[in-house]
Design goal:
The chain is 46% helix and 14% strand. The protein contains 33 helices and 22 strands. The strands form five sheets. The chain has a seven-stranded parallel beta sheet. Strands 3-2-6-7-1-8 form a six-stranded parallel beta sheet, sandwiched between helices. Strands 21-20-19-18-22 form a five-stranded antiparallel beta sheet, with no helix packed on it. A hairpin with a 3-residue loop joins strand 19 and strand 20. Helix 1 packs antiparallel against helix 3, helix 7 packs across helix 8 and helix 15 crosses helix 18. The longest helix has 22 residues. It binds a DNA duplex (15 and 10 nucleotides) through helix 5, helix 9, helix 23 and helix 24.
Length: 739
Amino acid sequence: MELYFEKELDRLNPYQREAVLDESPACVVNANVGSGKTTVLITKIQYLHHIKKVGYEDMTVLTFTNKAADEIKSRLLAAEPELPADKLRGFGTFHSTALYYLREFLPVEDLGYSKEFLVIDPEEELELAYDLIRQHKLKIKYKNRLKKRLESAMAVREAEKKVSKYQDDIYELAGLLKEEKAKQDKMTFFDLLENANFLLKEAEQKSVSPKWVIIDEVQDSDTQQLVFTDRLISRGASLFAVGDPNQVIYSWRGSAFQIFYTLKHKYQAKELTLPINYRSSTSILEAARCFLQNGSPLTGVREPGSKIIVRRQYDAFQDACYLAARMKKLHEEGISYGEMAVFYRLQSQSKIFEDVFLREGIPFEVSLKKTVGDVPVLKWCIRLLRFSLNTKDTASGIYVLSSREYGEGISGKKAEEIVRAGQPGKSLLFDRMCGLVENCRELGNEEELFTYFELDRYLNPVSASFHEDSDAVRRLFGIMYAYVREQQAERASGMREFVNSSSLYGSDVLREDISRQEDRVKLMTIHASKGLEFSCVFITGVNHGLIPLRTGDMEGEEEERRLFFVGITRAKDHLELSYYMNPQERADPGESRYIRMIPPRLLEHDEDIGPAVSLQELKRQVQEQRRSMTAGCLEQSPGQSLEQNPEQSLEQNPEQSLEQNPEQSLEQNPEQSLEQNPEQSLEQSPEQSPEQAKQQKLVRHSRYGTGVVVNEDETMLEAEFEGYGKKEFIKAFSELEYI
DNA sequence: ACAAATAGCGTTTTT
DNA sequence: CGCTATTTGT
């Protein structure tokens, strides 16, 4: 083993080797993009184990995502296949490690919990809070923002909790919620760390005392995670942390300020640097250097490579069409689609690319954050299992019975009665849930479980999404059975563990079918691109107002710059930036100043925004296609609410009016059509062509009188009434009369 | 019951 | 800044 390890060490560059061999009790490694950070981290772990004879069980390796933790574990196992998995129990995300400590070593009873406590998602905590408000008749203002208000209330110190800003009972609620969670044996992600931190301060030394704390992507730590680290270090652990201050893009969700500085001072940590980037061509690196905050060195070792292409486009649609053609060409040249990626600033920007790529036959995959909670049927099923496995969880029982979409659709009051009384015979579904643990032995696979709950009946067979729903549920059950088998646990307790483990929230329950075909173009936000790399990267919409997004303060501005830095450093060989002359969203037309910050000699401008006569026709077809699609599956997609924004903005954009008069628009360059019709932009309703504005449509309403139609589509109608102003109506329900 | 006043977003997302 | 949801005032 030691010999094998010598070879590993030889493969490292001097900087990497120094980090691995460093002997100081605390060391932070300032690792540049693409400098082999993960390799150093893994080699360090192996070094500690094989050479320094530190047991894996004496190491705590902390990451922020399950994905990162899985990668580290699987790379260790690949090098050492006979390594028993339970030696790596201390390897995982901050939250899963806190969970492990709480379950195995820390006296959670001191906080009123049992060892079998449950992990709940934020939404369930919110439900609990609303329940408490009702039960205790608390006065809470701005209930719609309760989640945010509670978050800030929980962060306030005990001493300052006298009167709330709005003079309501928010602090009382926070206190009650804490009690209630302990009573119901439930912890949120926040509680996992908070409680672990509290107990680590008090508990006896021997219970948890790793010899090493090793942290990946340490720049993303928030205060809670910093405290967790500190608790372990003050128990005698040495520290080895790796991260990149130039890749801080999550400070808005609380990553602590200037971590490297803090760690260096707090623990007299030695700071080492990994300056050499192996990933990108030197042109790309040179451009990236313009966006570094501090003058940290960033050295490349590769050839200059091709210039960065900057494209001027009329709008996102034209860009999408260009990209489709460009990618086809690259594919013909032998670059696989999997090596290409399109980045944008906002989730809502993906839609137009999806539509065009679908039409053009480009295989693609959109990276969307989806958890079980985002799919209504799975959310319902999890609650079904939760109550079945723990009938004390009455909130889940009530939720399942009173759901409108699934189950028996019992009213909330009645459901509460049944669940609280706990008497059988009132509801078949309720009886089945209560009987699950008893009958568990006979239910050997997902199909039998499905049948046991009579889900054929309860998953709302008349709904359009029934097939999709039952497939999703079967898949979830399948994953659960696989988990139980893998853990070699007794069935009921294995299921309980699955349903309550944070691993559930991190697992790819929904992505099974996507990963089959790998050769796809990836579409994602720049945020989501962190940690990935592609041969060809296309960053789209590099306009001011998008990249950078209009931000209030300096800090936000700097974060935007780091974000762009992250985006361009994902590219290995080829990078293209595009900006729009007619951005439909909040962006300004023209190139972002970020493009101007790159030395011109690195750039190649492509300013031809040719008229492409058929483009308008194509665009019309794409929009038509989308309309028929969204009409068909309105209720199935959980992401629907997110996707409504681009839809709306599309209705308002000028193309809508072009679509209504195709003959007129076709021979015009789209850019001209806007500039040549100044009256149009002065109109109150730009979606109407001048002709339509002249022959105004009038409607009569029983209450508001006669009004002028200002906006109209298939479902909605907006009219302006004299003395009343504008009013929106749903056509199907309003009693409107055309005049 | 309606109108005026006020608060606080806006985007990015993991556990 | 401009919009929306909510609270507060009449």
